[in-house]
Amino acid sequence: MNENNFSTLDRLMEFGLGMGMAQQMINMMNQTIHTMQIPETARPVQPKAVEWYIAVNEKASGPFSETEIKGLLLEKKVTKETLVWCTGMSNWQTAENTPSILKLFLQLPPAL
Fold first, then answer.
1. How far from 85 is each of 24, 63, 76, CA to CA, in Å?
2. Are residues 59 and 29 part of one domain?
3. What digits encode the pLDDT tens for the residues 13-28?
């Protein structure tokens, strides 16, 4: 039999075997990718907590966490007129004009 003279059935069988092998390779690659651990993604990156400074008697006081700022809001030691600053801000601003601090005011319980 001449090797260049395959019947249609032989060509279909060859094609099927090739597809089967390709599918096995794809499955093996997918399994490897899904079980692979990449060091940079092994643990999620935690954003650094913002540290706030407040002006008390014209002097910077802090740093304070958001939780501590909430406590100062409850104690009325920080008001909407208090000057606040954190890394990334060019100048001191009133708490009322600082969205991150203003949202803390909105989380306070209403006065009795």
1. 59, 10, 18
2. no
3. 788 788 888 888 888 8
